[in-house]
Amino acid sequence: MPINIPIDLPARRILESENIFVMDEKRAFHQDIRPLNIVILNLMPQKIRTETQLLRLLGNSPLQVYFTFLIPATHAPKNTARQHLEQFYTTFSAIKDRKFDGMIITGAPIEHLPYENVSYWNELKEIFDWSKTHVTSTLHICWGAQAGLYHHYGIRKAKLSKKLFGVFEHKLLQKNERLVRGFEEFFYVPHSRHTDINIDDLKTISQLQVLSVSEDAGVCLIVSKDEKQIFLTGHPEYDTDTLKEEYERDLAKNIEIDPPLNYFKDIDGRALPINRWKAHATLLFMNWLNYYVYQETPYEWK
């Protein structure tokens, strides 16, 4: 079955060109299937790109999936056209009485701020609390993961001496967890962040289980033992060239930054990015959608 997205969403054309099965709302309406309802709180500045990245990973599932895009009402995005936001996005007040099968909370480039200084922090706290009773399973990514760990468990982030930037090898610690079913013992994940989570702090929380860790990038994948919360410190949803564009953007701004590690490969004298993470990224999102959402969600929310 395909993902079900609005006809005019820009991601639609890209995904169709990649042979990802996309169905518009009109056609989906005539199928006698109860689709999964996923809400995506998109905090990233380039919203259209993030939409495409996430939908690509969720798009080749045998399940029909319907998406609702969410932005904070207390923050005005600067990098996405207002028309796009008005057409495809809603705010928490409009959906807070609904229940969803799954939720994704993205990262945000605001690591330098204390959580309490984030303009939409109070609203985000309300969404975090709401997700525990209105969502079957929530996947938190990068800053969203750090913020979720802080709000739900009081785990603080630690500032790194330099930006963690590149593609890093991770070791699987828990091979029998459904979220990483089919994973090899070692796999790669892109990271782009200035802060980290201390694994020793995580070990003090009995409700949490660390699934993977990297010698260079630290803890990566954490799951609550009730499987309602997933925390992912990296960016497996990134496109092949996303780190390259971040690197070139910072160089253009005269920001001191090293090239992303384990990312560029010299081919015929050209430094080209190599994607080492796509297969595991797809498997991770499919496992979450299947085992943590579809297998656990009630057919009818009460």
UniProtKB/TrEMBL annotation:
Pfam families in the cross-refs = HTS
List its EC numbers: 2.3.1.31
Summarize where substrate binds, as residue positions: K163, S192, R249
Keywords (A to Z) from UniProt: Acyltransferase, Amino-acid biosynthesis, Cytoplasm, Methionine biosynthesis, Transferase
Q: In which pathway does it act?
A: Amino-acid biosynthesis; L-methionine biosynthesis via de novo pathway; O-acetyl-L-homoserine from L-homoserine: step 1/1
Q: Give yes or no: UniProt keyword Amino-acid biosynthesis.
A: yes
Catalytic residues (positions): C142 (acyl-thioester intermediate), H235 (proton acceptor), E237
A Gene Ontology MF term for this entry? homoserine O-succinyltransferase activity
Q: What class of enzyme is it?
A: transferase
Site described as Important for acyl-CoA specificity, located at E111
Q: Where is this site: Important for substrate specificity?
A: S192
Question: Where does it reside?
Answer: Cytoplasm
Role noted for this protein:
Transfers an acetyl group from acetyl-CoA to L-homoserine, forming acetyl-L-homoserine.
What does the similarity note say?
Answer: Belongs to the MetA family.
Please identify the protein, giving its name as recorded: Homoserine O-acetyltransferase
Q: Which species is the source of this protein?
A: Bacillus changyiensis
